[in-house]
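Researcher: Quick test of sequence recovery. Tokens follow.
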């Protein structure tokens, strides 16, 4: 065989290899629920209540979610800040129901094509997968799974303007050489701690009043609804003819009713001397004092919480029995409030990070909240 024939033979072999690879991909993309392949569970007899730790590893990040001695779950990479337990429990319950759809014949040399190469933190490898490890309280491995390339359904009539959604992914259990295709893309398994922390601390449902003070602690404005949470908001200090602006006031009052933060870190020695302060009083009797500083295009906040439960007024001609009942009701409210306060004090040791657009609406000046009367 001369040189030209050898080159032609090599080219033909490469073409055949490429054709074989894409033929395999096409065949693997044709699975449908209800075909004649016998399904089996990804994890047999998986007891979610025994799970005590999850570890997620990629080339660039590692993450540990673990149950503490008090039974609460935390994110290790965020100094044990509480995690989003709803997200975790939903994932574990889903994991117990995942089916293996196919066990395709994929050789060791083909693993890279399905992103099933074991990740090593700090080493770049575009073909590396995500390693998920689950342990019980004794450190025993309940599941160790390499998550690879996502699977997309074959649909020749798909709308070209719609983003295709994965319906599964390729996995490889640690210690096994058998690749499996499962019916869940496991898209929520990310090693980014921000995706797992509980970001809802500042969602305060029963706000009665909120005010803004500048760095000199001078009050800039107060918005209140003194008669209860179902009453309309009022901007304090308006003169006759001044008209409150509904939208800016609504944006300000809703900021700390629905807000979520982006990230969290221990408070440490961070300087808040130039902070503006938002003070929120609630129907429960809790008072939130939130100091806010700006760092570039983000805001950092810290929060101190105290109690201010108002003792109910003595009614005219109140009987001793009525007075006793009133005091008993107040004592129960006070006891419940003290318990809540004890739990919430944990959050005073943290610095919370917000994007600019979530905070700037509550930092408006008073002139942005109303239209002065025409002279």
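Model:
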């Amino acid at each position: 065989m001369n040189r030209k024939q050898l080159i032609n033979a090599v080219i033909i072999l490469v073409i055949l290899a490429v054709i074989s690879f894409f033929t395999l991909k096409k065949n693997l993309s044709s699975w449908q629920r209800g075909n004649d392949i016998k399904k089996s569970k990804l994890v047999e007899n998986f007891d979610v209540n025994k799970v005590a730790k999850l570890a997620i590893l990629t080339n660039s990040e590692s993450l540990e979610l673990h149950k503490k001695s008090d039974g609460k779950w935390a994110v290790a990479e965020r100094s044990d800040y509480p995690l989003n337990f709803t997200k975790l429990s939903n994932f574990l319950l889903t994991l117990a129901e995942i089916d293996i759809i196919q066990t395709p014949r994929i050789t060791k040399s083909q693993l890279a094509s399905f992103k099933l190469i074991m990740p090593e933190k700090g080493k770049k490898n575009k073909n590396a997968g995500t390693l998920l490890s689950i342990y019980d309280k004794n450190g025993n491995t309940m599941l160790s799974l390499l998550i690879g390339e996502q699977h997309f359904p074959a649909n020749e009539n798909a709308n070209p303007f719609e983003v295709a959604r994965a319906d599964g992914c390729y996995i490889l259990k640690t210690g096994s050489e058998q690749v499996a295709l499962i019916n869940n893309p496991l898209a929520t398994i990310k090693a980014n701690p921000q995706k797992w922390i509980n970001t809802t601390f500042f969602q305060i449902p029963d706000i009665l009043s909120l005010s803004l003070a500048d760095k000199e602690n001078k009050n800039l404005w107060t918005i209140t609804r003194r008669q209860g949470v179902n009453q309309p908001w009022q901007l304090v200090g308006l003169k006759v003819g001044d008209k409150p602006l509904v939208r800016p006031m609504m944006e300000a009052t809703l900021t700390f009713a629905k807000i979520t933060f982006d990230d969290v870190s221990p408070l440490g020695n961070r300087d808040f001397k130039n902070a503006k302060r938002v003070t929120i009083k609630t129907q429960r009797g809790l008072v939130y004092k939130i100091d806010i500083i700006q760092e570039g295009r983000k805001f950092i906040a810290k929060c101190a919480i105290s109690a201010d439960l108002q003792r109910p007024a003595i009614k005219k001609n109140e009987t001793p029995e009525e007075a006793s009942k009133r005091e008993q009701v107040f004592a129960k409210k006070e006891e419940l409030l003290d318990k809540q306060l004890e739990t919430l004090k944990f959050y005073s040791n943290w610095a919370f990070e917000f994007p600019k657009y979530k905070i700037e609406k509550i930092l408006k000046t008073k002139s942005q909240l109303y239209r002065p009367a025409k002279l």
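Confidence is low (pLDDT under 50) at residues 26-36.
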